[in-house]
Amino acid sequence: MANYDLQNISADIVTETDQAVEKAIYERLQQQFPTFAFIGEETFKDGTTLTDEPTFIVDPIDGTSNFVHGFPVVCVSIALVIHGQPTIGVVYNPFQDELWSAVRGGGAFASQGSSTPRKLPLSSLPLENLQTASIGLEWGSDREGPNFDLNLKVFTKLARTVASGGHFANSLRFMGSAAIAICRVAAGQQDAFWECGCWAWDVAAAWCVLLEAGGIMVDGHPGKMHPPLHNRRYLAVRPATTGQQEFVEEFWTVIGDSRSTYGPALRK
């Protein structure tokens, strides 16, 4: 009972912190840009749509479970989206004082503490195959049904040896923050990130960082190279001199004919 109560207290604290951070961000942005729309995870209401108008999309705490457990892979994610396209992206991890930022057409940068911002990617070697790849993944909230089954299939095929029908990926990483994982892809620190089920506020800012660094974002299901921001299915692939298209096509073969139930949506 004590453990249950402690979990409830932790969840309440996180919810309060989420709401307080989002409120502070909203008020500051409203002062500077009163005509811009605002979509935040905590204040989002069903029926809200993403239009072509300038819109801030905010996740006040990405990495909630990490936050609860004191694991310092947590960030604030703020994006400005215009005509449905991420135009400015800022991702900040206050615990490690890491900042990733990008402006469409102006490049992407990363810094830590007082260090001079470094232009991304930090490296852009040719992209090889899944056997040499470090891939970011997440379990998501569904632990049964078709979405869970798809995760199990993909994770297993990536991990298995080639002889047993898998792809024997070099490394599978679960960071607990989609935004930070995508920024790591943008920097060239991991080769790809795949998740079905996250929301536009989880990926919008990092998406801008990824594209400006030279990476690509494609559909988490096979077939679509240019998915909408609110797609809910994402495969981010790092900047590379060659091999991005081939890598995407190989990853899509892992999914095969299986599908999640997630599709383009901007609602809870």
TrEMBL record:
Q: What is its EC number?
A: 3.1.3.25
Tell me the protein's name: Inositol-1-monophosphatase
Report the source organism: Gibberella fujikuroi (strain CBS 195.34 / IMI 58289 / NRRL A-6831)
**InterPro entries membership:** IMPase, Inositol_monoP_metal-BS, Inositol_monophosphatase-like, Inositol_monophosphatase_CS
One of the record's GO molecular function terms: inositol monophosphate 1-phosphatase activity
Residue positions binding Mg(2+): E41, D59, I61, D62, D202
Top EC class, one word: hydrolase
Give the metabolic or biological pathway.
Answer: Polyol metabolism; myo-inositol biosynthesis; myo-inositol from D-glucose 6-phosphate: step 2/2
Q: Which family does it belong to?
A: Belongs to the inositol monophosphatase superfamily.
**Known cofactor(s):** Mg(2+)
The reactions it catalyses are: a myo-inositol phosphate + H2O = myo-inositol + phosphate
SUPFAM superfamilies in the record, alphabetically?
Carbohydrate phosphatase (SSF56655)
Q: Which terms does the UniProt entry file under GO BP?
A: inositol biosynthetic process; phosphatidylinositol phosphate biosynthetic process; signal transduction
One Pfam family, short name please? Inositol_P
Keywords, in A-Z order: Hydrolase, Magnesium, Metal-binding
